Model the fold of this input.
Amino acid sequence: MTVAKPLPHDSAALHVTGQARYVDDLPLPEGAVHLAFGTAPVAHGRLRSIDLTKVRAADGVLAVITAADLDHEIDVSPSPSPEPLLAGDTVQYVGQPVFLVIAESHLLARRAAALADYDIEELPAILSIEEAMEAGSRFEEGPRIYTRGDAAEAITTAPHSLTGSIEIGGQEHFYLEGQAAAALPQEAGDMLVYSSSQHPTEIQHKVAHALHLPMHAVRCEVRRMGGGFGGKESQGNSLAIACALAARLTGRPATMRYDRDDDMTITGKRHDFRIDYRVGFNGEGRIAGIEFLQLCRCGWSMDLSLPVADRAMLHADNAYFIPNMRVESHRLKTNTQSATAFRGFGGPQGMVGIERVLDHVAHAVRRDPLDVRRANYYRPLAGASGGDISEQAKTQTTHYHMPVEDFILHEMTERLVETSDYRARRAAVAEWNARNDVLKKGIALTPVKFGISFTLTHLNQAGALVHVYQDGSIHMNHGGTEMGQGLFQKVAQVAASRFGIGIERVKITATDTGKVPNTSATAASSGSDLNGMAVQAACDTIRERLAVFVAERAQARPEEVRFEGGKVLVGGEALSFDEVVRDAYMARVSLSSTGFYATPKIVWDRIKGEGRPFFYFAYGVAVTEVAIDTLTGENRILRTDILHDCGASLNPALDIGQIEGGYVQGAGWLTTEELVWDGKGRLRTHAPSTYKIPACSDRPDILNVALWDGANREETVYRSKAVGEPPLMLGISALMALSDAVASCGKAYPDLDAPATAEQVLRAVERVCT
Amino acid sequence: MESLSLTVNGKPVSAEVEGRTLLVQLLRETLGMTGTHVGCDTSQCGACLVHVNGDVVKACTMFAFEADGAEVTTIEGMADGDDLHPIQEAFRTHHGLQCGFCTPGMIMSAAALLKENPKPTEAEIRHHLEGNICRCTGYHNIVRAILAASGQPVPERTATATADA
Done:
C-alpha cells in the first residue's frame, strides 16, 4: 500500500531542476501590466489630500487608482469587519495601501508608487499593548473570558502563590516566495486568477465582490506556494483583487508581487502578546488555580484576530489539568500591520504562557521543571500503566469543558526522557554550571498538546473530484493547497492506496475553484485530515462501482472484490486495473466522482467557551539543551531531541520534515526573530538583514527526531494525525532551556521575555546575578 | 540599452537590456528561465544564486551587462538531459526541500562547495550555506542531502518509537 511510505515530495523532481512554477514564473500573454501599491507614511492620520501628479507622469505608468476612483468600498477582509483595499479618509498604519499604480513593469510601478505627495493631518497613534489598553482600543465589546472552577479562591487558599508576566513578540512569516497574484480577463467579463494563496475560494469570493460578479464568473487556481505558514491565508486578497481590477480596467493581464521590503511592511505577522499570570500551588508544585490575562495586539483591522485570540485561550492549559482556571483575553486594536494567521494560530502564545507558569512554579519550589510538569499533566488514560484505576476511569476535561480522551504524554515523555538521556544530561549541565562562570548551560523538556480542527466549526469540511480515465490513469483534485508541506503527495498516496495502484498513476492537479467549490483555507493543520478523507470518499465511490461491475461478471459479491498491486481480485481471478477500467467504460459505468467530508463530533460555543472545538489532540515532546555566554548574552542550541505524534503517519519522511522545520521555526520565533517598530510605528526590521531568521549554522548540532507510532484513536484518514502546526511549539523547549541556563546564574527567577535575543538573555543574567 | 552576449548553460545568448537590468531579470524576464528565484530582492536569501564563470553569484546583485561575455550556469543547466546531477538527485531522495523556492539556490550553492571541497564536513556544509535561507526544512535534510551527494555516509535517523514497545 502506498500510504505510510516515505515518498519524496510530489514536485521534488521539478524543484531540483527549477521547473516548478510559482505565480511569478507563469508565462503571461503579451502586454501584461504590473502593479504596486503606494503606501501610507504615517501610523495614523487624516488624509486631507494626495497629489499624484508625479506618479501619473512617471515613466511607464498607465493608470493610478485611489479609493475615490472605486465604485464601491472594496473589502479585502476575511472577517465580517470590513477592511478597505485602499485607505479612504484615514490611514491606520505605516505601510497601508493608499493607491494602486498600474505600469508597464514591476520596477516602473514601484518607482512611481514612491512619488506621491501626501497631505496628512497626523493623529495620535496607538502602537503598544499598554497604549491600547489605556485607550480601550479593542475589537469586540470587551474581553472574552473562559473559566472553570474558582481560580481566585483556589489561588488564595493554596499554600503558595506567585505572579508574573511575559512579553511574547510577533513573527514574520518570511515565506521564501513573497505574495504574488495574476489576473487574466476572460470572455464576457469573467476573470481567471492565479494567486499564491492558501485560500483560493476566498480569493474567488473577494474578486467576485470587487468586480460585482457572481462567484461562478471567477476562477482561482493555485498550483503551489513557496511557503505559506498562515501568511497566505488572507494576506493575498489585496493583490488578487488589485490584479482583477487592473485587468478589468486595462483589458490586459495584470500581475503583482510584493518586493520583500513591501511584503514585510504591508502584511500582517504573528500576534504579539503580553500574558500576565497569578498562580496558586502546593510545595510540590501542583497547581490549584491560575488566572491568565492575555493581551493580544491585533493591529489596525480585525482580520483573523478573534479566532487567533480564542485559540490562545484554548491552549492556556497545554498539557496540564488546572482544576481552577480563568483566562481573560483582550483583542487590542493598534495602528500597526494587521496581525494574521501564523502556524499555530494563537496556540503557541497561549502555550508559552502556561509553560512559563510551570517554569516559574518549578523555580519557586526548587524542583526539576520536568517533575513539576509531569505532576500537573492530565491524568493517564484508563488502561494505561500506573496510577489508581478508579481515578483513571474519570476522563478529565479542559478549562473549556472538553474531555481529554487521547492523552498520551505520560508515555511519550517517559520514552523521550530515556532516549534523550535527560536525567544524566541534567546532572551534567548542573556540574558544568558549577565549574564554569562564563558559559552556562541549560536544559528543558516541554510537551505539546495541540487541538486539531478549525474552531469555526463550519470550516471543517472538504471536497474532492476524482476522474479515472479509460487507460486507468487518475486525475485527482481537492480543495487543499500545496505550500511545501507535502499535502498533495499524502493525498495522492491515499488515492493510490484506495485503488491499489502505483502513485505514478495518480496525477496531482492544481487547486481550482472550478473543480472543487466552497473550500476552506488550507490551515489549522487540517489539510490532509479533511482533503484526504474527501479524496478517499470520491475514490471509494468509483471503486464501489467497479466492484459491482466486476462482481456481476464473475458472479461474486462486490464486497469480496479487492484492489491490490495494480490488480482487481475477484472470484479467484486477478484482472489488471487498467483492463477493468476499460471494460467498465465500455459497459457505460461512470468513472468520475466527487467526494465530501465533514469532521464529526465537534460542537463549540466560542462566547461561552464551552464544547468540543477539536476532533482530537496531536502531541509532542522536545528536550533542548543550550549554552549562553553570560558576558554577552550570546547563546546557541546544542542538542534537541524530539518525539512527535503523527498518529499512523501517511508519509513519515514528509512528517519528519514538518517536525524539523516546525521546531526550527518555533525556536527562531522565541530566540532570534525580533520585530522592532519605532516610536512612529514604522517597522524597522523589514528585511532579512535586520530580521534574523535561523540560518543553516543556527540549527542544533544534534537534532534527533522520532515519530510516536500510535494510531489516532479517532477515525481519521488511515488513523493519521495532523502535523502542520503542532511541531512549531516544540520550539518552546529552547526558550525554557535558556531560562534554565540563566537561572543557574543566581537565585532570582530569570523572567525571560520572548524572543530571548542575546540582549534579553544578557539583561536577564544581570537581573538574576544582582 | 546595452547589447550583450553571454553563454547560459552552454548556449550562446544575445540580448538588448537597459543598463540597470539585473542578471536575475535577464534570466527570468528576457530569457524566460524562471528556475532562478527572487526571494528577498536584496542579496540575502540566496534563492537567486547562479554560477558566473564558475563563481557563485547572487543574480539579484549583479547587473546583466557585468555578465557580458561570461559563462553562466543556472539550475536549468545542472541536469544532463533527463539525468539529474548527483546533488539534484540527493536533494530529491533525501527530502532536502519542502516548498522548493530556495532549492535552486541551495543546489547551486552546494555545487560550488563540492567543487572546492569534495568531502566537506557537516560543519563546513553548514557554514557554507549561511547565505542561503530556507524557511521550511530546518536545514537538516539539506545538510543530509549534501553529505549524500558528496558520497559520504548520511547519519541514520533515530528509530521510530512505538507506542506498545
